[in-house]
Amino acid sequence: MSKVSSRATSLATRITLLALAGAAAAPLLAQPPEGGQGGGMGGGMGARGGRGMDPVEMIMRADLDGDGKVTKAEYAKAQFDRLDRNKDGVIDDKDFAEMPPQMAERIKDRVMRADANGDGKVTPEELGASVNMMFDRFDTNHDGAITREEAQAAVERMRAGQ
After folding, report:
1. Cβ contacts of residue 31 below 8 Å, gap of 6+?
2. Nearest alpha-carbon partner for 75 in 150, 2, 157
3. CB 76 within 8 A of CB 135
């Protein structure tokens, strides 16, 4: 594997892990705190004990047409949309300003590495190259779609550090 390919694969892995972590927090951020108004951190995260969503569910949530599979296009769109908080079509400082500070600090540098032209904005195409590599790792049978079983296996591999 070339040095560039290895770096891109590593970046894709990090972006996906961070996107999954951010996505798990998204339902909490969108909900008002207990008994309050507006967004807040709410309760704890985690698939089994908090209000956050299981990472497998976050992957499968990208299944926009409801056919039980996530295509590369669906996956790329979901990952980009999770990061493009203000929905202006690019990921930039404005999006990170809308995230909880700790989350923004953890992911900003890594996401911005995808900014191929150095303009301070990550487009869907720029993020797509990294996301596509991660999709290919999840799509273990290489049929162009991630099934629930493949998503579960991918999450287990990530948790095991593979």
Report:
1. 39, 40, 42, 51
2. 150
3. yes
For the full predicted model, state whether its pTM sits above 0.90. no
Residue 52: helix, strand or coil by DSSP?
A: coil
Residue 16 banded pLDDT, cuts 50, 70, 90: low
Calculate ∠ Cα 3-73-77, nearest 5°.
90
The Cα–Cα gap between 9 and 138 comes to 12
User: Is residue 10 pLDDT above 70, yes or no?
Assistant: no
Q: Which two tokens stand for residue 67?
A: 């056919």
Which residue blocks in the chain are alpha helix, DSSP H? 3-30, 55-60, 72-83, 93-97, 101-112, 124-138, 148-159
Q: What is the pLDDT of residues 80-120, one digit of tens each?
A: 999 999 999 999 999 999 999 998 988 999 899 999 999 99
Cα–Cα–Cα angle for 139, 99, 114, rounded to 5 degrees: 45
Helix (H, G, I), strand (E, B) or coil at 2: coil
Among residues 133, 21, 139, which one has the least CA distance to residue 82? 21
